[in-house]
Structure formats: structure tokens, C-alpha cells
Amino acid sequence: TSEEELFGTTEESPAFAEFLDVLGQRVQLRDFKGFRGGLDVTHGQTGSESVYCHFRDKEIMFHVSTKLPYTEGDAQQLQRKRHIGNDIVAIVFQDENTPFVPDMIASNFLHAFVVVQLEQGGAQGTLYKVSVTARDDVPFFGPPLPDPAVFRKGPEFQEFLLTKLINAEYACYRAEKFAKLEVRAR
Question: In this protein, which residues make up the domain named Rap-GAP (predicted)?
């Protein structure tokens, strides 16, 4: 999978749509009153809907590639990349076992990736396998992954995943690049 393929995806598989429901609720962006995460809530320039969550006194607006506008003829999908490439932490969802190489996304900001892979769906319930990768200068962040790192869809998985994402962002701020920016800003 290349960066172009990642940002060029226009369809949401049923498994991906189900996973988005784990992250939060789908919200209409027009006139949205909560944290907007840099998305346009007035003119629809960044799509019509996204996924939002209020978790432990924090508001999270996810930049979902398939919900950001797709630009016909733009192989790089710069409109999508402008948002996701400027995030610090990204979730990569995989419908199947596909190698993910963080370097495939050219970004100065993305420092940590939480890779969620559909392990099993259907009558027995949905299972997700989780792995985490981060740049070398990002300190460890919890909660630690269990062994095996397989979770059943449900509130416990949502709690684990959102906690991991928030802690990943805080850990990334302590990475060399962001620590230097903080010193310069003082």
C-alpha cells in the first residue's frame, strides 16, 4: 500500500464503518458546536460529516480520510493529507493482514501510529488486533498492549483505544521535534 492508495480510498468497507462506531459518533459538520479539530463547520470545505467523541473531559474530532473531500485527478489527495499529515497520531485501520510501514506517509508531524486490524467479524463478535509504532524519540506510552493484543469490540476496547491515543499524543509532545518547538515558543 502506498501513500496515494491510503489517501485515495473513497469507499468505507463495512468493517471500517463498524470500527468508526467504536471511535465515536458520526456528526454533521455544518454548524457543529463542539471541538472541530480544524474542520470547516461553516462552508463544508472539509466534508459533511466526521467522527467525534467526548471522552474523559476531552473532545476528539477524528480526521477520517474517507470523510474528507476526495479530489478527482489529484493523486496525492492534498486536501486529505493536509489534515491527516499535520496530525501527530494516526490510526491505521486494516481490513486484512497488510504490512504497514510508517514511512509510507511523508509527514513532519506524524510521530505515532496505532494500527488496528480486523481479526474476526461475524456471529462470534468482532475482534481487533492492535499494534503500535512510534518514532524513536517518542517515549513509551500506556496502557501497555496485552499479549496477545486482540480485543473484542465493546466499551472496554473503546476505553483502551482512546486512552492509548491520548497518551500517544502526550508522549509525542515530549519527542525532540516538539520539545524544541515548545522551548522556542516560550
Answer: 1-186
